[in-house]
Structures are given as structure tokens and as C-alpha cells.
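Hi there, hope your week has been kind to you so far. Thanks so much in advance, here it is.
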Amino acid sequence: MRCSLVAVAVNSLPVRLRSLDIVTTSPSDHPGAPAHDSQRKLVSVSQFVPATPAQIFDVLAKPSMHSVIDGSGSVRGKLVGPDRLSLGAKFGMSMYLVLPYRITNTVVEFEESKRIGWRHFGGHVWRYLLEPVEGGTLVTEQFDYSTNRANWFLKAMKAIKNNEVAMRKTLLNLAKHFE
């Protein structure tokens, strides 16, 4: 399924990508279509980024860069953990969502220059998938709540809708980082 979503997104990219146009794609043939798959409990958004997968992965694998690209406004700068992430690495971040708090994440998916994902005590996974395309990389960010421990909390916080908006902003920030 993921491959077909990537293929749709890549096929829908305009020819003028080399001019660094910022293009946001949805996992659908219809621009602006919802990125939420309620059956799979997955929110997935994609963005062309004018950089190699390795360059992008270096940003994603450095927790100190997360506050720079964060589109939610919730990731704050104080960090505990390694300078660069690896499979099984734990890292903590200062966060703010209504109130300040700290969160500790564990890297649960790691494939150099291709995939990185982490989860915290809530059980859901934040994941980035990198696919090389002409002139750069198609970056897909996913919020996978299929293993979430508190779906009632996600609903109460309107996390599905809010995360999609924040993810789109994060990917735009990532693209702008490489302009």
C-alpha cells in the first residue's frame, strides 16, 4: 500500500520541481484530499524536498534539529539524549501543548537515509519515509496511531486533525531548510 501511495504522489508532482517549487501531496489522486486513513489509523502527508535522502536523514536523525523544523510549535529546544539517533536510542524533548511537559521517545524504526520512526509512552509512532525522486526527495511523514494506548485522548485533543496540519507545516519547514 505504501508503495502505491508514493507512486501516486510522485506521478502527481509538477515538472517544475527543479525551480524549488514547494509541492505538498496527499495520499490520493485528489489534491487536498484527507491524509487520514481511519481503518489503518494512519495520517500520512508527503512533500518534495530539494535535497538528497542522506541530507534530509541527517536533519531528522539529529534531535537538536526537531525544534527547527517542527510545524506544531510544541517542540522546544531542551534535549536529553544522543547527538544522532540510531535504532533503540532514547531521547527526551521539552514540549508545550496547553502546558509545558517533557517527553521521552525511543527510536523503533531506523534504516539509514530511508526511514526513521520513534514512539513514546502513548504508543503511537512518528515516522519519516524518504524516497529519492528527480531533483530531490519525496518525504512522507506519518502519524501511526494503530498501536496507541489512549485513543480517547487523541480524540479529546483533536490530535488527528491537528497533527495533519502540523505535519504539513513541518514538511514545508523541512523543504525551506534546504532552499
Summary: Residues 159-177 form the longest helix (19 residues). Residues 2-13+21-72+111-177 form a domain with the Alpha-D-Glucose-1,6-Bisphosphate; Chain A, domain 4 fold (CATH 3.30.530). The longest strand covers residues 99-111.
